Amino acid sequence: MDTSFAIMINLPESLGAKEARKLVRELKTKIKMEPSYVILDLSRVKEMDSVGLDGLLVCIQEIARHDCAIQLRAISPEAATFLELARMDRLLQKFASLPGQAAIAGVAIAEAVIPEEALQLQPVAA
To answer: Is the pTM of this model over 0.85?
Structure first.
């Protein structure tokens, strides 16, 4: 039986220094569970600074280091603009993109949302 699963990370509306530190810290903790996929959802991002962009890059490096597949779910117009200005859009184009509400068939998804306090991992029924 295939026990592959994914971690979905819904980035917050504002991705600054505080949120980026929490994101990186929690991703490093959760990725030890060896997921097959890490899905990044940027649909809620409205504000992002250079430290937030750096945090996103650190996450991508950490995901690659653990040999996980990265998929993007949805990118808000604001996030797309920030990524384009930082020229990170070209990097993220290399990863498969999922439609807004898509899920991976046959793969259990553990959803992580980054609230103000901390990133929480919650299993979702497959």
So the answer is: no
At CB < 8 A and 24+ separation, what contacts does 18-21 make? 19/52, 19/55, 19/114, 20/51, 20/52, 20/54, 20/55, 20/56, 20/58, 21/55
Copy the structure tokens of residue 73: 């779910």
State the total domains in the chain: 1
Write out pLDDT tens, residues 9-67.
889 999 999 999 998 998 888 888 888 888 888 999 999 999 999 999 999 899 889 88
The CA distances from residue 115 to 22, 79, 84, 94, in Å, are 10, 18, 25, 28
Q: Give CA–CA dist 110/126, Å, rounded.
A: 9
Which residues are registered as beta bridge partners of 71?
39, 96
Q: Residue 71's pLDDT band (boundaries 50, 70, 90)?
A: confident
Domain that includes residue 42, residue range: 5-123
Query: Which CATH number goes with the domain that contains 112?
Result: 3.30.750.24
